[in-house]
Specification:
single chain, mainly alpha, about 0% strand
């Protein structure tokens, strides 16, 4: 398969996954599967959460696509790679950067990162499954980007 087509499939899948993750978060995690997601909003002792099991929702179709696409030598391999790339990004942004489960990326100052952290904090202000907002991870409401950019510019001006 042409590298340009393969790259386009990976990118399109990655972008699509943000919508899939948003819908899964809003309708599954804050719906019928709240039992597994509750400890993510209402913290319990320990490093792991029942919520961590949700990676299977994305890992299984990714692995299936990579394996079957490898065997058949077709586009499914690249779809699986797009899902896996989103999963890696989700882990790095959500678990590492936002929730600080590891000591990485502590000094990120870019307004984009401030915006996604703020949107996620707004999401977590609701401890129950109802009345949630900001279910996305990478694409958040524009107002958070505007606020973060303003704060970044003000910080830059005062630091000289």
């Amino acid at each position: 398969m042409d590298l340009l087509i393969a790259s386009a499939i990976v990118l399109a899948t990655f972008i699509t996954m943000e919508g899939v993750a948003w819908a899964a978060h809003k309708y599954l995690m804050h719906g019928a599967m709240w039992y597994f997601h509750r400890d993510h909003h209402q913290h319990e002792p320990g490093f792991f959460e029942k919520n961590d099991a949700f990676f299977l929702i994305f890992a299984v179709p990714s692995a299936w696509s990579i394996i079957t696409g490898s065997i058949a030598g077709d586009f499914r391999f690249w779809i699986g790679m797009g899902i896996a790339a989103y999963g890696l990004c989700y882990f790095l942004v959500h678990d590492v950067f936002i929730h600080r489960r590891f000591n990485w990326f502590r000094k990120a100052k870019h307004p984009y990162f401030a915006a996604i952290r703020k949107a996620h904090k707004v999401h977590h202000k609701h401890l129950g499954k109802e009345e949630g907002e900001c279910f996305g991870m990478l694409w958040v409401p524009v107002r958070y980007f505007r606020e973060a950019r303003k704060a970044h510019e003000a910080r830059t001006l005062t630091q000289g």
